[in-house]
Amino acid sequence: MRKPKLAAEAVSCETELTGLVTTRNNLQTRQTALTSELEQAVARRREALIQGADAAAIADAERACRDIEGTATGIADALAEVERRIVATEQRIAAERQTAEIEAVAAGLERNAAEIQKAGDRLAKALAEVAKAHTGLAITISGSAAGQFDPVNGPAGPLAIASNLLLHGLVQAMPGLEIRAELKPWSTYSAPSQIEGADPIRIAAEFGERLRETAGKVRAREIGHELPVGEDYAEPVPFDLAEMQIYVISPFSYHRRANAPTMVTSPVTLVPWPVAERAIELGVAASSETPEWRQARKADAGSADATTTPHGWGNVVDIEFDLAAWLIDQRAAA
Fold this sequence. Notes:
By secondary structure, the protein is mostly helical. The chain has three domains: 2-120; 143-219, no CATH class; 243-333, no CATH class. The chain has helices at residues 2-51, 55-140, 143-146, 158-173, 200-219, 273-282, 291-299, 323-333; strands at 180-181, 193-194, 243-248, 252-257, 260-264, 268-272, 285-286, 317-322. A three-stranded antiparallel sheet has the order 6-3-7, covered by helices on one side. The protein has a three-stranded mixed sheet with strand order 5-4-8. The chain has a two-stranded antiparallel ribbon with strand order 1-2. β4 (252-257) and β5 (260-264) form a beta hairpin. The two termini are 59 Å apart. The model is unreliable at 303-309 (pLDDT under 50). Keywords: Coiled coil. Residues 79-129 form a coiled coil.
């Protein structure tokens, strides 16, 4: 309801401004004409005085000059007022235009907000369907089948396999997501990494073919029927763990949970505070810059990122700390 009113006001001011400009032009034209008339009246009065005209003629000449001068003064005053009104009207027009622009921006944001909410609702519904499909896939995979998913890294769990397919599929459908996650949490050497897109249908088909081959081998008694069984690790109830900055003297590793080691190699980094305390206790890290840390930095030739250091799992200190187990203990004691 606000926009039509603004438009009407803008039209009214524009019309008023047009009228004022016309009036100013007319007054300026009249003012120019009066200048000529005044010159002529002054000349007539001068001539009457020079010629010694009678008093009545001179009085008429004087009156004519005064009348024209009075009219000229009135026109000058009117012109000044018209100019003031033109400036005021132009300022109102500028203010109303700015108000209209502000209203247009605000209305656009409100429309976009409604559109975003609708799009968000559609996304939420789509994700709900994805979540159902993900759960359905995890439920479909038996423990015996899950054990055959990854012969190289060991038995996987049904939920982990379903998550593996989901992550690959998401990146294939939306490469711009650039997801980093653990694709194989069942592997001892698993760590968060950039995920490349892959067709979940192809992965599931290859998995199914591998299961059929395994079934054939079991049936033919080529392998035993007691196959590896994959189970998902139950995540402990998370605590709100604050992180602590540490100065790493010797690269080390700890476990976020069973079979999920994490390597810490950055010279200065943040880790969960229980991990930090354990590392400081063992002397592989400090809470501030120490002579040992500075010496380690010199020996490390300034390397500052775990992804660019030569460290491997075999040459870092295992501080033998399982964060998941610690969390479980804390939960039980709470």
